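Worked example 2:
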Amino acid sequence: MCGRYAITSPPEAIRALFGYAEQPNFPPRYNVAPTQPVPVVRLARDPDGAKRRHFLLVRWGLLPAFVKDVSTFPLLINARAETAAEKPSFRAAMKRRRCLFIADAYYEWLREGKAGGRKPGRARPFLFRRADGRPDGRPMAFAGLYETYSSPDGSEIDTACLLTTDANGATAAIHDRMPAILDPRDFDAWLDCDEVDARSASRLLRPAPDDALEFFEIGTAVNKAAADGAWLQEPLARANAGG
């Protein structure tokens, strides 16, 4: 699963890639965690009838429409790309409410005891980012689903989850899953639920090429959701060396 990620590129660079109509201004976030507000991009029909991409803030953790008691419903931050079109929690969103998560990097944890013969019980965090990126970020898009949940008291909240797929040959050394990273050429097909059905859209969800990402171990400070700052992304070897 993917439980943490980062959004660090300047807003203008993100807007240039995703092509949404709004011009939001937001600070870099180095440790985005579940239940926090996160930006996504969706396709919507404007009053003039044209379809355009729009920026939307949602809660990371999808709530399907059928949920009666939010307090007892599990937090759905990820959906498996292979089964999302059939699962009751995600089926409707796969048909009608697909979106893009904005990201520059994500984090995953290597569980000791599963690799290298180390003592079980510990987890070592790794950062994953575009191999052609820069230390200050280069945005990419994770496939996502969103829902507007209406509570019994009449209030509404926009929620979303991201989709994961099998890890590629390189990242499988750390974790067996990875976010479904979409090529910009596939943005329109993924977002346009009127023209592209759920089954066709599912074919866009595949592991990234083995050379698409670089990754390295970082310090355990990222484990705390309250921690935020560029220092979280320092390679562990460099941090231990003092710079």
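The domain at 4-106+139-211 is CATH 3.90.1680.10 (hypothetical protein yedk fold). Residues 11-18 form the longest helix (8 residues).
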